[in-house]
Amino acid sequence: MSGPTEDIRQKVALSCQILAMEGLVDDILGHVSARIADRDEMWIRCRSPEEQGLRYTTVDAIRRVDFDGKGSDLEGRYRVPNELPIHGEIFKQRPAVGCVIHAHPKEALICGITGLEFRPIFGAFNIQAMRMALDGIPIFERSYLVNRAELAAPLIEAMGEKNICVMKGHGITVTGNSIEEATVRALNFNTLARATLQVAHTGRKAADITPEDIDRLPDLGSTFNDLWVWRYYAKKLQEEDSLLSRP
Fold this sequence. Notes:
The chain is of the alpha+beta class. It contains 8 helices and 7 strands.
């Protein structure tokens, strides 16, 4: 079967692989979902008895379920993530969201539990990450497993209309209009978190870039910021897999 819906399914699998390749998720932890247009359903990364981890996600692991995690596509052998409510409840409450990512990047974890502030300490180096710092990164102060709808509600409240939230002592939740946008957004935030942590390690305080410099930073558009970057990581993944398959 092929078509737009199956293309989305394949992109969810690819997003999982890219996030694992770049260290935002470890082993079997973390998940990606994408809304199915005009349906109260989503594609979401599930687990089966053949589970091998996010880096080795296959399309078969991406299953179609409703926002409560129910559906015949599970075939009695696939299990939705324990924290499915992160995805389903966001999709229910934010109709414009097309993709949800829950990941566990180490730098964001350390920044969150030590209270490091995400500030615009660089500019043209990564404009998208700098704008995240300018907009402010919500912090969800609880560290529990979000495995029920009522436990997702405080997270969604803390996140508001923002597209990224640091879950203290836990990980991050990222949203986007598309899989490409959400994936690249997660990667850009990881750059911001890594720089924030590395600067803290120096023992010195970095100054924010000036308003004048911020005003000179352009909006490069979604093609530059999302699609081309997504293609780069997809190509990088393809080349890494090719090297791994060599005898």
